[in-house]
Amino acid sequence: MSGSLRKSLNGIFPVLKPHGITSAQLLNVIKEKLAEELSSGHKSAMKMGHGGTLDSTATGIIVVGIGNDCKRLKVFLNSEKSYFVRGQLGIATDTYNETGQILMERRYGKVERRYDHVTENMLQERLKDFEGRIKQTPPVYSALKKDGKRYSDLVSDN
Predict the structure, then answer these.
(1) Given a cut of 80, is residue 59 above it in pLDDT?
(2) Do 9 and 35 contact (CB within 8 A), yes or no?
(3) Is the entire prediction scored with pTM above 0.70?
């Protein structure tokens, strides 16, 4: 890709991140496809970033910036976001998601009656605890970094 064409690639756009890849892997896929479309193998020369990270098990919209507009991505980090949640009652894992080792499992009688005491209203009330500005405690299996290494990589090295 010529230097002048690379410099003209600027913008911010939404991308639907699929299940099973990290936000960084998604950026690499976009860079590869863009380099391919522009008949250039120089994906490393493209400046690209995203305005927030989703776990590899999550699907959702990620705001992607390219070129000089990467500077504008910080606006999206503190913007309002919405989430949809799906869970399974009675199981706790070390990763806080379906990929982890089960730490605790509670079983109650027949499968169809295990949680018939839990109502939709009870769940809606509990989910209100996650509205507004909250301080999250990320699991050790996260994209956060310490000394340049992802926590998830540090845990899996042990």
Answers:
(1) yes
(2) no
(3) no
**pLDDT in the model for residue 134:** 80
Instruction: Find residue 149's DSSP bridge partners.
Output: 146
Beta pairing, strands 60-66 & 48-50: antiparallel
- DSSP calls for the chain: --HHHHHH--EEEEEEEPTTS-HHHHHHHHHHHHHHHTT---GGGS-EEESS---TT--EEEEEEEGGGGGGGHHHHTS---------TTEEETTSSTTSPEEEE---SSGGGTTTT--HHHHHHHHGGGSSS------SSSS-EETTEEHHHHHHH-
Report d(CA 110, CA 114) in Å as an integer: 6
The proportion of the chain whose per-residue pLDDT surpasses 90, expressed as a percent, equals 22
Give backbone dihedrals phi and psi of 33, rounded to 5 degrees, phi first. -65, -40
Instruction: Specify which residues 35 forms β-bridges with.
Output: none
Q: Which residues are catalytic?
A: 55
